[in-house]
Amino acid sequence: MAEAKQAEVAIYVHEEHVTEVMLALPLSFDVQPFPYEDSPNGPKTNIMRYSGPWTDENDKAVRRLQRLQIIRRFSRDTGEKPRRPKK
After folding, report:
1. pTM for the predicted model, two decimal places
2. Which helix (H) or strand (E) holds 39?
3. What is the DSSP string of 47-80?
Protein backbone atom coordinates (compact mmCIF):
# COMPACT_ATOMS: atom_id res chain seq x y z
CA MET A 1 0.00 0.00 0.00
CA ALA A 2 1.26 3.48 -0.87
CA GLU A 3 2.32 5.80 1.90
CA ALA A 4 -0.01 8.69 2.62
CA LYS A 5 1.36 12.23 2.46
CA GLN A 6 -0.08 15.20 4.30
CA ALA A 7 -1.91 17.46 1.86
CA GLU A 8 -4.33 20.33 1.60
CA VAL A 9 -6.90 19.66 -1.11
CA ALA A 10 -9.56 21.77 -2.82
CA ILE A 11 -12.14 20.22 -5.14
CA TYR A 12 -14.57 22.40 -7.11
CA VAL A 13 -17.78 20.58 -7.99
CA HIS A 14 -21.39 21.39 -8.88
CA GLU A 15 -23.53 20.96 -5.80
CA GLU A 16 -25.49 18.04 -7.26
CA HIS A 17 -22.24 16.00 -7.41
CA VAL A 18 -21.02 16.54 -3.82
CA THR A 19 -22.44 13.22 -2.60
CA GLU A 20 -20.87 11.34 -5.51
CA VAL A 21 -17.43 12.79 -4.69
CA MET A 22 -17.86 11.94 -1.00
CA LEU A 23 -18.71 8.35 -1.89
CA ALA A 24 -15.60 8.03 -4.08
CA LEU A 25 -13.40 9.83 -1.52
CA PRO A 26 -14.70 8.98 1.97
CA LEU A 27 -12.80 11.75 3.75
CA SER A 28 -13.91 14.51 6.11
CA PHE A 29 -14.48 17.37 3.67
CA ASP A 30 -15.53 20.88 4.61
CA VAL A 31 -18.10 21.80 1.94
CA GLN A 32 -18.91 25.46 1.28
CA PRO A 33 -20.67 27.36 -1.53
CA PHE A 34 -18.30 28.89 -4.09
CA PRO A 35 -20.50 31.32 -6.06
CA TYR A 36 -17.70 33.21 -7.84
CA GLU A 37 -17.75 30.96 -10.92
CA ASP A 38 -21.53 30.51 -11.17
CA SER A 39 -23.71 31.98 -13.86
CA PRO A 40 -27.04 33.39 -12.59
CA ASN A 41 -29.09 30.59 -14.15
CA GLY A 42 -26.57 27.76 -14.05
CA PRO A 43 -25.72 25.07 -11.51
CA LYS A 44 -24.22 26.15 -8.19
CA THR A 45 -20.57 25.39 -7.42
CA ASN A 46 -19.28 24.12 -4.08
CA ILE A 47 -15.71 23.90 -2.87
CA MET A 48 -14.78 20.81 -0.92
CA ARG A 49 -11.71 21.32 1.27
CA TYR A 50 -9.71 18.61 3.00
CA SER A 51 -6.52 18.64 5.02
CA GLY A 52 -4.91 15.37 6.05
CA PRO A 53 -3.38 12.16 4.71
CA TRP A 54 -3.59 11.80 0.91
CA THR A 55 -2.70 8.64 -1.03
CA ASP A 56 -2.12 7.58 -4.62
CA GLU A 57 -5.52 5.86 -4.45
CA ASN A 58 -7.12 9.24 -3.71
CA ASP A 59 -5.34 10.68 -6.78
CA LYS A 60 -6.70 7.84 -8.92
CA ALA A 61 -10.25 8.47 -7.70
CA VAL A 62 -9.91 12.20 -8.47
CA ARG A 63 -8.61 11.52 -12.00
CA ARG A 64 -11.53 9.17 -12.65
CA LEU A 65 -14.04 11.78 -11.46
CA GLN A 66 -12.34 14.43 -13.61
CA ARG A 67 -12.61 12.20 -16.69
CA LEU A 68 -16.31 11.77 -15.94
CA GLN A 69 -16.54 15.59 -15.64
CA ILE A 70 -17.87 15.36 -12.09
CA ILE A 71 -14.97 17.35 -10.64
CA ARG A 72 -14.60 20.74 -12.32
CA ARG A 73 -11.25 21.69 -10.80
CA PHE A 74 -8.81 20.12 -8.34
CA SER A 75 -5.77 21.43 -6.48
CA ARG A 76 -3.48 19.77 -3.98
CA ASP A 77 -0.61 21.18 -1.93
CA THR A 78 1.69 18.76 -0.14
CA GLY A 79 4.03 21.48 1.05
CA GLU A 80 6.88 19.99 -1.01
CA LYS A 81 8.94 22.27 -3.18
CA PRO A 82 8.77 21.39 -6.88
CA ARG A 83 11.95 19.88 -8.24
CA ARG A 84 13.92 22.00 -10.63
CA PRO A 85 15.20 20.34 -13.76
CA LYS A 86 18.95 19.86 -13.91
CA LYS A 87 20.77 22.07 -16.38
Report:
1. 0.83
2. none
3. EEEEEEEE-HHHHHHHHHHHHTT-EEEEEEE-SP
